[in-house]
Structure formats: structure tokens, C-alpha cells
Amino acid sequence: MKRPLLLLMIFFLAGILISTAAKIPAINGWICAGPLILTILIFLIAPSLRHDKLFYSLLCLFFFLLGIFRYAGSMAPAENDISGFITETPEEVLISGTVTGDPEWKKASYAWYLVFPFRAERLLVRGDEKTATGTVRVSLFMPGKQPRIGDKLVIGGRLSLPRGRKKPGGFSYKTYLNRMGVRAVMSSAEKEHYLRTGIEKGPVLSPRRLLSAARNNSDSIMRGHLSGVTRAVVRSVILGLRGEITEQTADTFIKTGTMHILAVSGLHIGIVAVALMGLLRLTRCPRNLTYFLTALGICAFAAFAGCRPSSIRAALMGTFVLFSMSLEREPDIVNALALSAFLITYFYPGQLFMPGFILSYLAVLCIIYVRPLTDAFLRVTPRVFGESRTAVIRRYLLRLLSVSFAVWIGMMPVIASYFHIITPAVVLSNLLAVPVLFVTVILGSGLLLAGSVGFLSLPAGFISSALNLVVLFFIKAMRMISQIPFSHIKVSSPNRTFIAVFYAVLTAAVIFFRRNEKQRSLIVIFLFFTANLFVWDEVVFRQTVIAEEKKEGFRPRKCGNGWIRSFEAGIRTPRNLDSDPASEADSGKNVLK
């Protein structure tokens, strides 16, 4: 089989989905069943090693069962789990434990506060001291000193379980956090009780603590040289810190489909990899050492920027590709994609249901499989030796347009589900967004380098001025694009049946394209363009329909495209995928399904 890892990964992810759909109890016994099943499979496989198909079939079965048990085990509370001592009613407690993630600033309606994961060790509740385990999501208001990864703290505040669903089919904040390994939530102000008792050192926390310190120093440099919207955008692009992005700026990026440049993802990792390889080649570094240092650099950048799923995926894929190149083998992007997905979902099975994970992998799949259709449609020609500069620029623009078009076609149902918007302008806006992102990453890195050396303050000033011009120009251009008629269209969320049918047809179209003449891609592109625009419920935003749906709730409604399910909240406002779901859950907005 050409790509065995892909099929094994599909069976593993199918096991996770079945475990969720069948509502398999989250008990620790499921984890214990894993070694037993592995032993049984070994006995089954051993006599049939000469039969490749039978062996591979049994291996697929093993990965399917592994997915079931791994997800059920990850959702199971550990011994003395902190969720067993509390309820959904907040209680005053004291917790001692360790900060295990970078604190991030969030903004409530009345104040700024810090959010960070906290691994509990001891719990004082209702006058009883208990040994506790599990991760708590702490919201710390009015902090006098920002905690860091590895800090051992004693915190006082109001502790409770996350809220579950308020109604059938609604958003469950509890499930959302449990899939990220968070068992409880805590609200605290430093004046209640806050004491730093030491630092935990280890092979995982110590390197992350060093990277966190470098991230904080870099943030200080940016704050000293940049301001306003420029600082907010550059902090997001380089450091993965989006706390200063205003709603107006986020709305502009959403309407133009360029929100991806604010999230450290594969495009950012690719830019860093190209820059590192270029610098190392200039120093005449040996080829294999260049690949090794580049892989190390992109992994460090992914961790430096906050370990987002999209950046981890890109760093893992980049590492696999560079390793293949060092062995002088043709890199297989699909196998690298499958292996990175398996590693992420094995250690964090709940990531399969996170928007960042879904959008990140879907974008890569669209580039791999849908882009050949759009290349043929736009007549993107292969590179020819000795061609003119005009031809090179034309091919580059067409290829960029083709990639953007392919991603737009393949991701529209998912984007509509989370943002409740479709953005035809993304095909145009990405022509500007990609080069601007490249310039921003290079200039931002140069600013950090110059700002950290005292005698380079003058170049740092020039770089900050250039960054300000680039970012302000880009935002102004995006606002102009967002005002073009039909650049963005608000829609209600498509139902799951339509999404499944859409991707089934898209898969069939890809297969059809590969087996037939490429000129037929025009038909395929036209069909999916019309599907994106006309098959959904509520292509045009109508206030009267929204008011009717709010009044009558869920109901099937007959429209020109058939029976489509309407949602109680009507067409909801687009939102940032990384916005804090706590405030949305508290306000009764069911955002994720």
C-alpha cells in the first residue's frame, strides 16, 4: 500500500468518533483493556505474517479499538480527581499546585484578567484538606505579578465544575474543557489568596519555562517599539498572543477570510523554515546539518508561539519532510500529515473536535487534493527553465489564487458552521495577505533581534516604522475589500447531513478529475461554487427571518433549496475561533455544536 499511515490514522480517528457517538463510559478500565487487546491481536497476527492483507486488516482493527479506548480513557477522571470534590455551584477553596501553561490576558466587560492551566495537588474545601489531581482553568483578576510556567502556587478563589448543556443539542462548556483535559474552573483575585511557594523543574517544564521567558522578553520589546493595532497584529503573528486584537480588527479579518494570518499556523512555520534554510545556506552550512537545525528551529518557534494545534501540526510535518530530504527520499506530505494527526490525537484525543485542529488539517487536505482542480481551471502552467520574469510573476499569482480558491471551496461548510459567514473575497484578499505575512514575519523577527541589542536601537526604530506602514496598509486594504458587495455573506449554520454530503461529493469530484480529462474541472468548479452559494439555508441575511426563528425556535422550513433546519438563534454574529467560550457559555450563546 502506498500510504499505509493514512488508512491507519483514519481508523484511529474513526475509533475516537465512535467512542463519542456511542457515549462509551469514561472509566479507567478502558485504558486497562488496551494491553489485553494488543496481546490478543499479537496472537492473531503471528500465524498470518505471510499474508499482508490479513495482517494489515488486523492492524486497522487494532488502531480502531485503540482510538475507542484512548478517547474513553482520556475522558475518565483520575484517582482523587478534583471534579469529585465540587459541583457546578462555586465554592470558596484553596488550591496548591503548579502552573502548566503560558498565562494569557483576556478582556471581560469590566476588567482584564489572566487565564492559565493549573495542575492541582492539594485542595482545601469546606474545611477539609484533600489530595487532588487534575487540571483547573484559573481566571486570575487584578494580578500583582504574572505567574509563569512551572511556578508552584497556592491560590484562593471560587471553584466549580464547568457548566454542561443548557438544552439538548446545545453547547456544553464542560465537554469542551474536558476534551482539553480541564476538569474544573476557578475565578480568583490576587487579594483573596495568592502565594508563590517555589518552582517545579523537570524535562518538560524547564525548557518551556525558558521559552516562556523569551516570549515575555520579546513581548516587552514589541511593547517598547510598537503601539496600537500594529502591535496587536505583530504580537499575534510572531508570538501567538491575540489578547489585544480588537473586535473591529477581528471582524475585518473574518469578513475577508484572512483570520488565519493571526493564528500561528503552517504558513508561518513555512516562512520561518524558508528563512532559516536561506540563512544557513548563506553560511555554507552542510546540507544535513541545515535540515536538522531548520527542524529544530521550527519546533522551537511552534513552542515559542504557544503550541497551537495548527503550529504543532506544521512543525511535525516540516520535521518529517526535512528528515526525508536528509535521507534523499521524496517526502510524502500525506503520510507526514497522517503521522502528525495521529501523534496529536493520541496524546490529546479531544483535539479532534477542536476548531483549530479541524481547520488546520482540512486546509492542508484541500491544498493537496483540491488544488489540482483549481490549477487546471485557472490554467496554472508548470515551471519552464529560462522563462521570462513576467511569466514567473504570472505563474506565482495564479498559483496563489489557485491555492486560495481550493481552500475556500473545501473549507466553506466548516467556516460557515463556526463563523456563520462565507467569504468569496478570500480568493482576492489572500493575494495580498500572504506576501504581507511574509514581510511581517521577517520584519518582526528583525525587530526582536535589533531590540534585544542596545546599540541597534536605530535600526529597530526603522524596522518598527516599516512594520507600522505595512500593517496599517494591509488593514486599510482589507477594510476596503470587506466593503465590496458580496465580499462576505452571512449565513446560518449548515446541518450535518449537508456537510457530510458536500464532502462526499467533493471526494468523488477529486477522484473523477484524476481519472478523466482535466478540462472537465470547469464543471466541477462551477458545481461547487453554486453549492457554496445556493444550497445552504439563508444565503442572504434577512432580519425578518431572524426575528421569526428567534420567536419560534427550531423548526424545519421549506425554502427554494429544500428542507433545511433552522436554528433557534437565527444567524449569529461571526466570532474569533479562539475567543473565550466561558463568556459565551455564561451569556447563553451556543456557539459550538
Keyphrases for this structure?
single chain, alpha+beta, 593 residues, two-stranded antiparallel sheet, five-stranded mixed beta barrel, disordered C terminus, OB fold (Dihydrolipoamide Acetyltransferase, E2P)
Structure description:
This protein has 593 residues and is an alpha+beta fold. Among the domains are: 4-75; 82-200, Beta Barrel (OB fold (Dihydrolipoamide Acetyltransferase, E2P)). Helix content is 56%, strand content 13%. The chain contains 19 helices and 12 strands. The protein has helices at residues 4-21, 29-45, 52-75, 173-178, 205-225, 228-239, 247-255, 266-282, 287-304, 309-326, 333-347, 355-378, 389-419, 426-451, 457-482, 496-515, 521-534, 543-552, 581-586; strands at residues 91-99, 104-107, 112-125, 128-131, 135-141, 151-160, 182-189, 194-199, 421-422, 489-490, 555-559, 562-566. A 5-stranded mixed barrel has the order 1-3-5-7-6. A two-stranded antiparallel ribbon has the order 9-10. A hairpin with a 4-residue loop joins strand 2 (104-107) and strand 3 (112-125). Helix 8 (266-282) packs parallel to helix 10. The longest helix has 31 residues, at 389-419. It is globular. The protein starts with a helix and ends in a 7-residue tail after the last helix. 37% of the residues are buried. The model is unreliable at 517-522 and 525-593 (pLDDT under 50).
**3D shape:** globular
- Main sheet, how many strands, which sense, barrel? 5 strands, mixed, barrel
> What CATH architecture of the domain at 82-200 would you give?
Beta Barrel
Instruction: Look at the structure and give the mean pLDDT.
Output: 77
Tell me the strand order in the biggest sheet: 1-3-5-7-6
Task: Let me know the CATH homologous superfamily of the domain at 82-200.
Answer: Nucleic acid-binding proteins
